[in-house]
Design a protein that fits this description.
Shape of chain A: globular
Strand content of chain A: over 45%
Number of helices of chain A: 0
Helix content of chain A: under 10%
Distance between the termini of chain B: 37 Å
Strand content of chain B: over 45%
Order of helices and strands of chain A: EEEEEEEEEEE
Number of strands of chain B: 11
Number of strands of chain A: 11
Shape of chain B: globular
Helix content of chain B: under 10%
Oligomer: heterodimer
Number of helices of chain B: 0
């Protein structure tokens, strides 16, 4: 079963706008990660935030984590057409190499 | 360097056929994971190896699914007597044990269609 839910399920924006995607999860976590998946391709790791962190930045990406609400958000600033993809959050319950539990994903379309 | 590779990329099987899906992890990655991704859904965990040891197979949906990694490198996911509900993309991921952050590197997947 899937751990959480991303919302919205689909998001369509104009190039240059910001895109915000949210993820909620059910159980306690060790880390939360965001992955991107282009159509017909594998997943690419974007960013990881640990359970004791509240915010993290990487280039145009900003991730927040609220463990009290069991939720995270991914913000992509100044979006580009190349950002068009599905975005998934994934959690793991313990440290080390453990299986990831993914949400259902947000399909982002950036229109040029 | 080379990433995770999977073969075949696409597989069409008639219901009842057996299929074998291959995963070549990144060299030196000790951990290997298999996930199943249905259309429009996120990946769901199937099974996990550390070297040749299968540490967790709790996600395998039935005893028709079998995975192995005999030499701790290449892994094969076998599905016997395929059913239409087995149609999905099968993703393989590897990671380097010892990393606390558990970043996993994914292959492109094998899209299985069972007719």
């Amino acid at each position: 079963s899937q751990q959480g839910e991303e919302d919205p399920q689909a998001l369509s924006i104009q190039e240059g706008e910001n895109a915000t995607m949210n993820c909620s999860y059910k159980t306690s976590i060790n880390n939360l990660q965001w992955y991107r998946q282009n159509s017909g391709r594998g997943l690419v790791h974007l960013i990881l935030i640990r359970s004791n962190e509240r915010e993290k930045h990487s280039g145009r990406l900003r991730v927040t984590l609220d463990t009290s609400k069991k939720s995270s958000s991914l913000l992509i600033t100044a979006s580009r057409a190349a950002d068009t993809a599905s975005y998934f959050c994934a959690t793991d319950a313990s440290s080390g190499n453990t299986p990831l539990v993914f949400g259902k994903g947000t399909r982002l379309s950036v229109i040029a | 360097g080379a990433g995770v590779s999977q073969s075949p990329r696409y597989k069409v099987a008639k219901r009842g056929q057996d299929v074998a899906l291959r995963c070549d992890p990144i060299s030196g990655h000790v951990s290997l994971f298999w996930y199943q991704q249905a259309l429009g859904q996120g990946p769901e965990f199937l099974t996990y190896f550390q070297n040749e040891a299968q540490l967790d197979k709790s996600g395998l949906p039935s005893d028709r699914f079998f995975a192995e990694r005999p030499e701790g490198s290449v892994s094969t996911l076998k599905i016997q007597r395929t059913q239409q509900e087995d149609s999905a993309v099968y993703l393989c991921a590897s990671s380097f044990v010892g990393l606390v952050n558990n970043e996993q590197f994914f292959g492109p997947g094998t899209r299985l269609t069972v007719l």
